[in-house]
Design a protein that fits this description.
- There is one protein chain.
- This protein is an alpha/beta fold.
- The chain has a single domain, classed as Rossmann fold (3-Layer(aba) Sandwich), CATH 3.40.50.
- It is 43% helix and 19% strand.
- The chain contains five helices and five strands, in the order βαβαβαβαβα.
């Protein structure tokens, strides 16, 4: 089974949305056989990735950073979207953090990087704004090769 994961920004500018969508779709092109997709299902890149992975028939593994992760969603619509994707997951990995801290987000990103063969990054190339941001996970994944 091929394993593919994602790290990426929550906020994707409207003018970049089509480019991100095309890039994520292209990353799945040519992948044959069974796939496992890893995502924390955050708003933005994580959810776009999960939609594409599920459409390609991948088994979705959700990596939940903390016990209160659902509190990080800004409104009822975002939470409903998260729950709908989570309900389609085959596996759920819950990390042992009580609160959604930077450390919990870093641990979730590192878990995804550690467990996939390919990590897709939807990233603007800038340093992370806090521990566990996309830039940090890209740096971590690069250290793994």
């Amino acid at each position: 089974m091929k394993r593919i994961g994602v790290t990426g920004h929550r906020s994707i500018p409207q003018e970049a949305h089509a480019h991100v969508l095309a890039g994520l779709r292209a990353a799945f092109h040519g992948l044959e056989g069974s796939l496992e997709a890893f995502s924390s299902l955050a708003v933005g890149a994580d959810q776009i990735f999960a939609d594409i992975a599920l459409a390609r028939g991948a088994e979705l593994t959700v990596v939940i950073p903390s016990s209160d992760y659902e509190d990080s969603f800004a409104d009822a619509g975002e939470l409903a979207r998260y729950r709908a994707l989570k309900d389609r997951a085959v596996r759920e990995v819950r990390l042992d953090y009580p609160h959604s801290t930077d450390e919990a987000y870093y641990a979730a990103g590192a878990y995804i990087a550690d467990h996939c063969d390919r990590l897709l990054a939807v990233w603007d190339g800038r340093p992370a704004r806090g521990l566990g941001g996309t830039g940090d996970i890209v740096t971590y994944a690069r250290s793994l090769g």
